[in-house]
Amino acid sequence: MPKIAPLKQPAPPADEGDGGDGEWEYALRIPHTPLGPGIVRAHVRAVLTRYRVHPAVLDNVQLVVSELVTNSLACTRDSVAVRLARTRSSLRLSVWDSSPQLPPSSPGISDVDSECGRGLWLLRGCADDWGHYVLINGLRATGGKEVWAEWHAPYSNE
User: Fold this and answer.
1) For 16-141, where are the E strands, in sequence order?
2) Phi, psi of 88 (to 5 degrees)
3) Of 101, 91, 97, residue with least CA distance to 152
4) What is the pLDDT of residues 35-87, one digit of tens each?
5) Which residues contact 11 (CB under 8 A, 6 or more apart)?
């Protein structure tokens, strides 16, 4: 009877074990559904845990992506796209939706009991940098806007 060779594990990515020094990008497009924020949080946690992001940064990225996706789903009826990108010095999260309406230029809460109006405070407090821009005939054929947040040196070994 012939011997059966054990299955070989696939080779790990080139940057396995170095805390994510290589550049990478992950993208997720979600339909307009109330399940969207939870699905995106799980996706973000899986990716950033794999790349050994510092736990405090991981928590902040999850909070920010949840807020941005929730806002995008509230202001449009279309799907939302989320992108995580690693450069040598930073981690960038961006959320795209089809609405051209930009976030307010400064955060503000008109009523302390209000259920909305705190998103920009969270974004500014959790990320090292953030911004937004309108897309007309650029990256996305349908236009819309992209809101992004960035963290510098987000990895546990940096």
Assistant:
1) 24-30, 80-86, 90-97, 129-134
2) -65, -25
3) 91
4) 999 999 999 999 999 999 999 999 999 999 999 999 999 989 999 999 999 98
5) none
